[in-house]
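TL;DR need structure tokens for one chain.
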Amino acid sequence: MNGTVELVASVPDAFAGLVAGLLAEPRDRAFSCFLSGGSTAEECYRRLAATSAGPTADQATGARVDWTAVDVYLGDERCVPPDDPDSNHRMITEALLDTVGPVHSDHPMYRSGPPDRAASEYQRQIEGLGPLDLVHLGLGPDGHCASLFPDSVALALTDPRVLVVADRDPSATNPHDRITLTLAAIARARLVVFTVAGASKRDAFGRLMAGEDLPAARVDAERVLWLVDAAAGGHTDPAGVQRPASTADD
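>> reply
TL;DR here they are.
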């Protein structure tokens, strides 16, 4: 497991404060932001929208976010119609984009057609980006992140040129065909932020801290930050908080 663990009172609040601060920093190009799916992510995006948009945004973050300078991408997506209840992009639109207003660009990961073709199209969209500014990931109860499931084809890929692939859960626990960033794509990130909240994630996070080779344990990037609440990380040794949590030999 790579990165730094930060135990926080509220994962959505911590995520929103961190990301709003990053987005408010001056820059000479658009900020590439790769977003996630799931209930924790939805709470994070609703809080980020409230923090970074509207008349109180300056007071909340110290600076207003210019969303027209943000490029929105996805880290993974279910191969369902764009208006399907299980669509990550639909959730992101309703929780965040509809509130914060126009962005510099918005890149849905799946619209229609075979998953392999959609993955190839998304690969072409991102392969020229260079470093990815932010990749947001969640943690599944089985230790998966994005749509990189235990024993799945995507998890086994080692070619650094392959950034986006179609995948599915071999156990069939998680439904739908998927499209996902590969570990090689995530490794291009300047910052990866995991958000881990709730008692349902405690077992998976504990297994990561114990050094198990779960998919999320393989994520690496320039910086990896784990925002974890007490329900998910209550067993975590306080001495391990705010320090690198890698189990690899130095």
